[in-house]
Amino acid sequence: MATLSIGKVQQDAKFGFAFKNLADKNYNSTDKEGNEVGGFNGIYTSLLQYDLDALKAFWDCGLAHLKKRPSMAEIEAGLEARIEEDGDTEKLFKEAFREINDSGFFKKDAKTFWKNLNMFIEMGKTDEEKAENAKGAQMMLEAKAELLDEEIESTD
User: Fold this and answer.
1) What is the distance between the alpha carbons of residues 148 and 96, in angstroms, rounded to a whole number?
2) Residue 38, CB-side half-sphere exposure with 13 Å CA sphere
3) Which InterPro entries did the record assign (predicted)?
4) d(Cα 14, Cα 7) in Å, to the nearest integer?
5) Average of pLDDT values for 15-24?
6) How does pLDDT run across 105-141, given as a tens digit for each residue?
7) Which residues contact 25 (CB under 8 A, 6 or more apart)?
8) Confidence (pTM)
């Protein structure tokens, strides 16, 4: 369970429409072609890249269901305290990624993400582009395996 102490209160991330709506509103991004990728994909991908801003976004959205939602400053303070306590960010990233990856609410989104990544490998116009796509996909598969404590899949 992904938990974070905000002040003196232990909070659990919750996945539902409050998470999705806030993610789409505040954390949506666009790809190279100008298409919106959605807040879930933005947070999910950024967690795979160990982006600290993704932890803030995860907790901002994960606590969106609360009537008295914590401010970003309170979330940051909670994250800083946890990082100091744990000695690094690894456990925070693993908890956040595992929770979002395994949540029933986002299960289909996560499966679609990996299915699209596999299709992306073959999308290059040249062999060089395909090789570059495969290399990027492999990096993401390795990050996923590390975050979920799994064996590394290969795109070879």
Assistant:
1) 10
2) 12
3) Phage_TAC_12
4) 18
5) 97
6) 999 999 999 998 888 877 878 888 888 888 988 999 9
7) 39
8) 0.88
